[in-house]
C-alpha cells in the first residue's frame, strides 16, 4: 500500500474482505460507478473513485482526472499505482457513431496506459456495455439476446473498447469481464440518464399539476417487453466478476432477471403516487418537461427538496427513446447464473422501493 497521503479511504473490513484488493472506479459520478464504489466500500475494500468533478457524499477517496488528456491521466493516476481492480464506467456522449468510438476508446486507452505507466499490479478490469451491443439503438433485435450472438456490421464503441481491453489483458496478463446491463435504475446526483428519475420527476410534476398519470410513449412501447437492471444488483455482479475465475474473459448480460410491460406497471405507479391514472398519451418529454422548470423550483421550496439543478434531474430525451421503443428488449441471464451469479430482483417491487427512497431523501416530494 502507499503512504497515508495516497491511501484510499476504507470502511471497517468484514471478516471476508480481501485486503489485497485496491479498486479504482472510473466514472464514479455516474449511477453505475457510484453504486459500485459504495458496494466495494461496504465490503471493506480499499476504493478510489475517479471522475472530473467531486461526488457529493462519497466516503471514498476522490481522484479528479481528465481521462481524455493522456498526460493528465498519466499524472493523475500516479496516486493510484497500487490499483489491482479497475472498474471502467466512464462514458462521454457524442452525436455520431464515429465520435462515440473515438472519445470513449480514448478514455479507456488513457486509463489503462496511465495505470501501466504507474506500475499498477492490475489483476482485473470490468467493462460495461449494454443493449447497443445487440442493436437496441437501431430497432428490432432477436430476443432473448445471448452473449454468444454475433456482432453487428454497424460500428459500435462497445466493440472497439472490448477489443482494446482484450488486447491489453493478453499483453499484460490481467483478467477482463464485460457486463451488459439494460435500463439501469438507481439514484446518483447529477446523473439524469436514468429511467427511474424520468418516471419519478414526471409523476411528481403531473401530481402537482393535478393531472392523472399517463404513459407518455407509444402504444407499441406500452405493450412491448422490457427489462431493467437495478444499480445495486449490478454493483454486486461487478464485485462477483472481479473475483470469480470463471468470469475471466467472459461477457455477461446482467438484469433483474424478469421482464416487464409498461402497461402493467404504470397503473401501479399511479396508485403508489396516489394519483388517478389515464390511458397513454404520446408526448415528447424533451419538449414538454423543460417548460416546468419554474414549477419544479417552487416544489423544491414547498417540499424542502434537495436543490438539484433541473437539467440534472432527468434525461427527458432518454425517456423519449425508451418510451418509443416498440419492440421487445430481452436478454438472457442464463450464462451468469450458470457461472455462479444468481442474484435477482422483482422489478415492480424495486421501482416502488426506489420511489420511496427518493422521497425519503427529499429528491422528490413525499408520496403520502
From TrEMBL:
List residues traversing the bilayer: none
Task: Say which domain of life the source belongs to.
Answer: Bacteria
Record domain PRISE-like Rossmann-fold: where: 83-309
Q: Which PANTHER family match?
A: 3-OXO-DELTA(4,5)-STEROID 5-BETA-REDUCTASE (PTHR32487:SF0)
List the protein's name: SDR family oxidoreductase
Q: Which organism is it from?
A: Arthrobacter burdickii
Its taxonomic placement starts with: Bacteria, Bacillati, Actinomycetota, Actinomycetes, Micrococcales
